[in-house]
Amino acid sequence: MLISKVMTSKVISASPEQSLRRAAQIMERNDFDCMPICLNKRFIGTITIRDIVSKVVEFGLALDEFTIEDLMTPDSKFLFEDQTIYYALSLMNENQLCSLMVVNRDNELAGIITLEDIMLSIKGTNPELTNKDSNIEVDLKKVLKVSRKIKNLETSLEFRQIKSRAKNVHSTPY
């Protein structure tokens, strides 16, 4: 199955000259972990909450002092919309990613695909998995729910550790 059939095509992106504060606000408001960066519709990289926290907030720096371009990852992994979901799974597994940006052959952002999108599409194409009597659907939802809880817990713990380190940095006399 092609990625274009499964991906989310309505994606919010940012431009490299925007402030990190603006990027953080967009990501927080929309509950994003990462956001694509585009220049004239062309995908040029990504910015993540982890980038912002570990490289700016942790050191007590001001978000307004930096642009997205200062912190973005310009060599981000991506997929073409005419590749298969099986290739997407392979790339996600190989790079330990839960989502990838999708571009057309002109390198213009076309969408985003997540592991959840792929799992749900595989479930939808397998008659055994769409059987109402099957417990697979319930199991799939449980796996996705647990996966989200783990991700949220990891993020929460990471933020607490970073906050604690930042307090120690600011309270240490020079």
From TrEMBL:
It comes from Methylophilus luteus. The keyword Amino-acid biosynthesis does not apply. This is CBS domain-containing protein. Keywords: CBS domain. The keyword Ribosomal protein does not apply. Residues 7-63, 72-128 form the CBS domain. SMART domains: CBS. InterPro entries: CBS_dom, CBS_dom_sf, Diverse_CBS-Domain. SUPFAM superfamilies: CBS-domain pair.
